Amino acid sequence: MRRIGIDVGGTNTDAVLLDGGRVVRTIKTPTTSDVTTGILTALVELSRHPVGAIDGVVIGTTHFVNAVVQRRDLTRVAAVRIGLPASASLPPFCDWPEDLAVRVRGEVFMLEGGNDYDGRPIVAFDETGMRRVARRIRASSIRSVALASIFSPLDPGCEERARAILSEECPDANVTMSYHLGRIGLLERENAALLNAALIDLARATVDGFTAAISASGITAPLYLTQNDGTVMQAEMATALPVMSFASGATNSMRGAAFLSGLADAMVIDVGGTTTDVGELRRGFPREANSVVEVGGVRTLFRMPDLLSLGLGGGSVVEADPIAVGPKSVGYRLIDEGLVFGGRTLTATDVAVAAGIVRIGDGEAVSRLPRDLVGRALDKARAIIEDSVDRMKTDARELPLIAVGGAAFLVPDRVAGTSRVIHVPHGDCANAVGAAIAQISGETDQIYRDLSREEAIAAAEAQARERAVAAGGDPETLQTVDVEDMPLAYLPGNALRVRVRVAGEMASTAGQNGSSSVSQ
Amino acid sequence: MKELALDDIEALAVGAWILGTGGGGSPYLGLLNMRRHYAEGRRVSLMSPLDLAAEDWVAVVSNMGAPLVGQERLADSRNIARTVEIQEGLLGTKFRAVMPLEIGGGNGIQPLMAAAHLGLPVVDADTMGRAYPEAQMTSVAVGDLRPYPCVLYDPRGIEAVVTKVPSWKWMERVSRRICVELGSIASTCKAPRTGREVRDWGIHFTVTKAIALGRRVREAQRRHDDPVAAILDEGQGQPLFRGKVVDVARRTTEGYLRGRAAIEGLDEDRGSRLEIAFQNEWVVAWRDEAPIAMSPDLICVLDTVSGEAFGTETVGYGRRVSVVVLPAPSVFLTPKGLEHVGPRAFGYDLEYRSVFNESG
Lengths: 520, 360
Fold this sequence. Notes:
The complex is a heterodimer of chains A (520) and B (360). Chain A is an alpha/beta fold. Chain A has 15 helices and 25 strands. In chain A, strands 3-2-1-4-10-11 form a six-stranded mixed beta sheet, sandwiched between helices. Chain B folds into two domains: 2-206, CV3147-like domain (CV3147-like fold, 3-Layer(aba) Sandwich); 226-359, CV3147-like (Beta Barrel). Chain A binds chain B through residues 83, 85-90, 94-95, 116-118, 120, 122-123, 150-151, 184-187, 287, 290-291, 391, 393-396, 486-492, 494-497, and chain B through 23, 29, 32-33, 36, 65-69, 71-78, 155-157, 180, 183-184, 244, 246, 250-252, 254-257, 264, 280, 312-314, 316-318, 320.
C-alpha cells in the first residue's frame, strides 16, 4: 500500500509518502490562502523523485470548520423538520448564534411525521405538505436542503421519503439527511445537518480544487478526506458530508503517533507552535469526547476526540518573574521573533536550544541566558505537561506518552504518571502520517428492546460492519473499535441503547486495476 | 411578586441541574423555550408561597418520562400550559399560580414555560427540593394530601386524566403506564393544591435557591474561581469526595435506571473509593464500603473543573468529579418523610444518618 497523506494546517501544509508502513519522504510548505496551491506545491516537491504507483491521496483539513468559525463561504439553507405536533416550540436554528443564523437560514419548514422511541409513527408523515415545500424550494433560489425527522437514527423512513419527493420536484437540490450525521438528540443532529448543508458549495469547490491539484501534480490516485474519527471518506462522500471532517487535524496527529510508535494504547502529546493537545489512544484511535461539542457557537454531537488543549508550544513566550511559559505565543512569527532566529523575544524554543535539548537556529544567541532561568522555564513546561497528561488519563495505569508535533522536544524524557516518553522519527509530520494511514469505519447507534445485551450488541455490530463495507472498507480487516451500551431510564422492557463503531483498511481497488501511476 | 430576568432563568437552569442530584433531565431545552419567550416579550414573575391566600388554587406541573426521549420530542411550553388549562376545567375555577413538582432538573423550568403562556406567576416552592423518581416521593405525599386528579397531555391531542386512586403509589403505577403508552413522555399537571396546602406542605423558596446556586457557579466560572467551593458555600453543603469515575454499571429494572458508579479518590481522598447507587437520582454513597451519605440528603456529582452537574445517564468513565452533599428539606427528615424517601424506600436496609448531624 503506497499512500500520500497531506495535512493542511493553519500554518503549514505537510505531506508524507508512505510505502508499506514506512515513511519514505516528508515535505513541509506554508499553507496558502487558497489551500490548493499549498497542496500542489507539496505534491510537486514530493514527486521531485519518482513516487511510483499510489493507492490513494488522503487529505486532512480544517478548511470546513474554519469556514463556520469565520462565517465565510457559507450557503443559504432550507430547513425541513419532520415531527409535528412534537417539538414545535423549538424550530430549526433556535439555538444558533444570530450572526451565523442570518447567513445560513433561508427558509424553515415544519411538517407532521417522525417516530417515537419504539418505532411507532408519532403521526403519519405529511407527504402532501412535503410536496408543497419542495415546490416552494424549487421556486426559490435555495438549492441546499437539510432534513431532520424525530428519532430518524432509529427509523430514517421519513427523511428518505422527503428526499425522494424533493428529487422529484426539485431535482437539482442538494439534500443533507440528519440520520447520516448523528445520534439521538434532535437539535444537535439537526444542527449538524444544517451546518453540512451550509458547507455544501464550499465542499464541492474545495474537493474539486484538491482533485485539480492532484491531477496537476501528475499523480493519478483516488482522493480521500479524513474524518473526525481517524477514518477516511471517499472524495465524493466528502462533498456530500463536509462536517464529518471537522476535527480531523487533531485526530490525524494522534493516529500518526500510534503508527510511528507502533503503540495502540498510549497517551499522546502534540506540541505545536502555540498550543499543545493532549489525548489518549485506545486501540489505536483517539478516545472520543462524550459531551456536546460546540462548533462556531453551534451545539452538535460530532464524533470528536477528547482533547485537552493548552497554551504551550515552541513559540510560547517565556517570562522570568514569576516564571511563565505561555499561553502568550509568537506563533508562526517564531522564525522572526525567537532569539535563535535573531529576534528579541525569549521563547520556549530558545530555552530548549540553550539547554542543549535541540539544535535550531543560532545557538550562540542564547549562550548567555542565565542557567537558572533556563532550568526554571523547563521545569515549568514539565509541570504544565505533567498536569495536563494526568488530567487526561482515565485510570491509574502508567501508559507510555508519545510526543509529536513540531515542538515535541519540549517534552522531557521522564514525565510523572507515564511509563516512558517516546519521541518518534517524523513526529513533526505525525498529522500527515495519520492522514496517510486513515481507515474506513462504520457506526450505528440505536435502541434495542427485548434482546439480551449480547444479542443487541451483535445486531449493532452487524449493522456497523455493513455500513463500513458500504463506505469502501475491506470486510476482512474490520475490527470493532468501540462499543457503548446504556439501558434507558424509565423505559420498561429492557430497552438498551447500543453504539458500535468498526474500522478497517480501505479495500484496495486502485492497485488492482493498475490505473495508478505517476507521470513526471 | 418579582419579575424574573432572563439571566435569573439562565442561572436557574444551572442550579436546577445541580439540585437534580443526577436525575430530572437537563434543563437546557426548557431554557431554550424561555429564551424565546423572553425574546418575544413575555415575562414570568415569581411569588412567595407566603403570599398565597389559603383558598387560592395552585397548579403543580412537571414533564414525566425518559430524559432520552426528551432529547427528540423536545420540551414545548404549550403542552405544559395545556395541562393546566385541562386541570382548570376539571377544577371549575381559575388557578392563582403554577409551581414546580420538582425543582431538580428540567422540571425546575416547566412551570415557567406554562406561566409564560398563561400569564400566571410561579410559586417559589416545589414538593421535592430536588428530583425524585416516583410520585409518592414528594412533600405533599408525606403530608397525605389528595393524590388525584392527575392530567397527562400529549400534543397528538391525547388528554388523559387519572380521576381517582387510593394512594400516591397507585398514582405512580397508573400514570407511569399511560406515560409509557404515549411514547415515554408526557406533560403532566398533578393534583391541584390550595394556598393553605402549599404554605403547610410545599418546600419553600427552592426556585430562589436554584437561581442563587446557578448564579454562584456562573460567577465562579467567569472569574476562574473554584465553582465547587461556591456551591458548598451557597448551598451550605459538605464536601464528600473528590476523584475520578472508574466504573459505571447501569441496568433498567421496573422502568427505572438503576446502577452504581465507582469513584477512585484523588488529592485528599487518594487511596479511598466511593461508590454511589442510583435510581435515576443518586441515592446512597459508600466510602470504602461504609455508607456515608444517603437520601433524603442531596448527593450531587459535579464536574470538578466547571462545577456543572453530571446526570446518572451521562456520567462516564474517566470523569473528574467532586461529590458534595446538600442538606435535605426538613419535611423528609421526619419518620413519615423517611418512609417515603429514606434509604429503605429505595430498597437499602440502612438507618438514615445525615452527613450534617455528624459534622454539626
